[in-house]
Amino acid sequence: MGKKVNIKDVAREAGVSIATVSYVINDVNKVNCETRERVKEVIDRLGYQPNINARSLVKKESRIIGIIVPVNEKDKETILLDNPFYLEFLSSAENKARLQGYSTMILSIDEQKVLVRHINSGTLAGIIVLGSANDFVYNTLREVDIPVVVVDQAKTSNKFCYVSTDDEMGAFLATEYLIKNGHKETCFLIGGFEDTLVYKGRLEGYKSALLKYGIEYKPGRVVNIDISYEGGIQAANKVLSLGDDITGIFVMSDIAAMGLIRGFYDRNISVPKDMSVIGFDNIRDSKYFIPQLTTIDQHIGSKADEAVEVIIGINKKDKHIIENIKENNVITIPVNLVERESVVKSNVSKMIC
After folding, report:
1. How far is 302 from 296, CA to CA, in rounded Å?
2. CA 279, 297, 302, 54 torsion: positive or negative?
3. Among residues 236, 248, 258, which one has the least CA distance to residue 209?
4. Mean of the pLDDT values across residues 28-49?
5. Better-predicted residue by pLDDT, 22 or 151
6. What is the CATH topology of the domain spanning 7-50?
7. Does the keyword Ribonucleoprotein apply (predicted)?
8. Which superfamily does 64-165+300-333 belong to?
9. Which residue ranges make up each domain of the chain?
């Protein structure tokens, strides 16, 4: 195993002092452009990785972004393994932060004492709240003087910045795609809390598409399920109990859609031959599944990047980011349809154009 590259090695290779390398690493405006680029080239070539904690001490600032994750109410564990959406968000956030010289720390919403200690420690550059949180968390965050970005929740305070998906448009596009492929008899599998932004937006999008094409909205065909692979499997029986005229199903998340397809398979029902299924998320596994899952891309990576950029921008006093947030502290990520294999034209009705 080779010797770990340190700051002295970089300085020697670049032909500059250790202080100059430190200035470049910490974005101190004391180095001319030519020297700065030379030092950066050496850092990349040698694979030098600055100690983030040491940098924070030198500059008397924190470079750690805390990410608060939700818990599964049934077993009080984080839901990171239930839905790949969360792992993909965290991976993208960590990568974005690392490229900017920051690191991330996962905080569980269920460990209130530990959570409060970290929030009030002064060691965090900012906090991302991923998913739903309780009033205790929000009330605690309102008292801290660091940037807070809330992901996928409705705006409740001017103190926070909010990043979310255009859930209503995504649900509209998914439902419309089923309808345009001849699936006038559909159902919608949804989950989570009914008062959340995601739940309301996706339900409204589903209703809007039915209304546009003159199809009756049937509340009984909106089915609440557990948003997980196992929840999707269990949902197969629920769908089949709704009647044999349903040919198209919109599922609130990809992981549950994949579970549903497995549940149908176990009952000798083929997707898309016998039933068409469309998901929402465009997680990485959706294109590797059989059949490849038709879905709505909510651009998970872009959502994570936006959250991290806001925190770093505020810490760096980026005037552009700060002014944009003052003007509008809600950032909405656009969506698009991804056509793959799990939806085909219906054999029971004419196509709708």
Report:
1. 14
2. positive
3. 248
4. 87
5. 151
6. 434 Repressor (Amino-terminal Domain) (1.10.260)
7. no
8. Response regulator (3.40.50.2300)
9. 7-50, 64-165+300-333, 167-298
At 138, list the tokens: 């929000």
Q: What are phi and psi of 2, to 5 degrees?
A: -70, 160
Token digits of residue 148? 């807070």
Show the tokens assigned to 18: 């250790």
DSSP 290-352: SSPPBEEE--HHHHHHHHHHHHHHHHTT-HHHHHHHHH--EEEE--EEE--SS----SSS---
pLDDT tens by residue, 225-262: 999 999 999 999 999 999 899 999 999 999 999 999 99
Q: What is the pLDDT of residues 323-333, one digit of tens each?
A: 999 899 999 99
Q: What is the DSSP string of 194-209?
A: TTSHHHHHHHHHHHHH
Chain segment 61-103, per-residue pLDDT in tens: 789 999 998 876 555 555 677 789 999 999 999 999 999 999 9
pTM for the predicted model, two decimal places: 0.81
